[in-house]
């Protein structure tokens, strides 16, 4: 009986708990035992995240479990911790000691604990990514999900203010500190100062796209994902890629690099921000075709305003430091007029100020989910008129300023098919809404009733509507849709946006 009882328990454990009964062993591709998920390992090779240091024997010795018993005033402990910090900083150049979580330099109570917090991988993502190229080997499960890279945006009011020059200067300083820097795409526009600033930095090869027999150079995102530098420089964030690339837009390439754990510095002008598209058109008469979604600025770790007074920028252009001689006069008399530059500079200053205010107040972009209205919740109603997309942009700005969610609602008539022009305008507004992070809703039936019902269900605090096109006499007797919504909503702000007539259709 003395042998039967432990054998019986062993068999029950094998059946009921399987792998855990054997100690949660980890095996390599050949089936060889390489460790246990319950005991840490010395992941100090480039292809691994580093785990917690060991205090058990000579490196995670399961037979010597126990802490060091050294107190916070111990000089021995302080020296050991400093050695671990120095080792981490040496393996991750360009990082600061403040970036290192405590669990990476202080052992657990058992001295064997393999677990690290979500902040643990952060300082080492670029290092691990580089190591994976050299040797793809098995690691703990959390090592298969790298933390996103950091995004820094150099924002300007217009071309020529010095965004690329500032980006290159900071990148050179980081390279001198040991950071692995690669220029993913640079557009110097023939400016000698910019080209000199880039000298000495590694430049990624260009992908050549051919359109009607003409070659166009594009960023080779595939090569960069193989190379996986710590920091990648990407000029002109809003650029539209030529066919043959991984994505239609360069900002989508940047998102893929960030998801792979690569830090990115990028440049862009304020007129390319999607939610400002109509405002820029109103102020300058130019319809900007290349835009990027606001969420990239919202999610950026840092936004740097590269500022230059309008008079100084015009002088720089006149001196031929921005455009070749044949383009100077057209530039100064068209887009780079003093009034345009003043308006664009005001937009850039306000955007960065609002961005900083949101971060200071903790107003991160909210998810559009039903529930009590703790903050502002904005719903814009689109009916297919030509200014539907403009309404979405205006509502998006309101939602961003308050840090609240955005909803886009379209109410379809129950018994009639919408004209093709209306259908196309609604779909364009819905696509724009999704790009700006909105939740898109469709209802059928009476318009005012559907709007009021949706506002109640979603705890909406602000409704954005277009100017009514109904006859004036119906508004006077309270029969307009806007009048009904105003009457039947309680505690909701209703914004009526004027139907502005389009200006000249210049593009940039």
What is the compact description of this entry?
With 508 residues, this protein is an alpha/beta fold. It has 17 helices and 17 strands.
Written overview of the protein:
Strand 12, helix 13 (388-402) and strand 13 form a beta-alpha-beta unit. The strands form five sheets. The chain has a six-stranded parallel beta sheet with strand order 5-4-8-9-3-11, with helices on both faces. By secondary structure, the protein is α/β, with parallel strands linked by helices. Helix 4 runs parallel beside helix 5 and helix 13 runs parallel beside helix 14 (420-435). The protein has helices spanning 4-17, 75-91, 125-134, 163-176, 192-198, 221-227, 250-259, 277-284, 295-299, 310-318, 325-333, 338-361, 388-402, 420-435, 447-457, 472-476, 481-488; strands at 25-27, 33-36, 151-156, 181-185, 202-203, 206-211, 214-219, 231-234, 263-269, 286-287, 302-305, 378-381, 406-412, 439-444, 462-466, 493-497, 506-507. Mean pLDDT is 79; it is low at 123-146, 367-374 and 502-508. The longest helix has 24 residues, at 338-361. The protein is built from 17 helices and 17 strands.
